[in-house]
Amino acid sequence: MSAEKQLSKTAYDQLDKDADRILQLIEVQMENLTMPQCPVFEEVLDTQMFGLSKEINFAVRLGLVDAQDGRDILDHLEVEVSKVHEAYMEKEKNQV
Amino acid sequence: MSAEKQLSKTAYDQLDKDADRILQLIEVQMENLTMPQCPVFEEVLDTQMFGLSKEINFAVRLGLVDAQDGRDILDHLEVEVSKVHEAYMEKEKNQV
């Protein structure tokens, strides 16, 4: 594998890892926050998504990651976060 | 130049460009905000520094940028931002 292909693969791996980390952080927050609707939750999520988008944008500029793939990573993460959010809300509702 | 060296050079160039962009943004803010001491200013700066640190960290993980160089980019930017801030404060003081 060429050095550039290897770097591109590493870039994708790292971005996936970071997206997973954000999802885990959100899950932990959902479990531990009394109010997942609260602004702090939204702010943490926004900040993390912003950070990831910066990394993706940087990787795209270096030509290591395809721009559409980059958007897909963010979109996919948003869908996953929504799922976690909904699952938690459903659980809360059933407990009342 | 090898592909990896070329990518490393591009990574450094892009990070320098981003640091410059943040500094320019801060300068524009200083010129246009009535209250550069206000929390909005600090928040914009924090967010931008966070974004840049994410990019740097990403580049370091890919082995494209040396960890110490990455810290130096952030430190240097902080010094430059302080200078802009102080220069503005001095100007304001003299106008009163």
From TrEMBL, chains A, B:
Gene3D superfamilies: SO2669-like. Signal peptide: none annotated. Pfam families: DUF1507. SUPFAM superfamilies: EF2458-like. Belongs to the UPF0358 family. This is UPF0358 protein BN1048_00427. It comes from Jeotgalicoccus saudimassiliensis. The lineage of its organism: Bacteria, Bacillati, Bacillota, Bacilli, Bacillales.
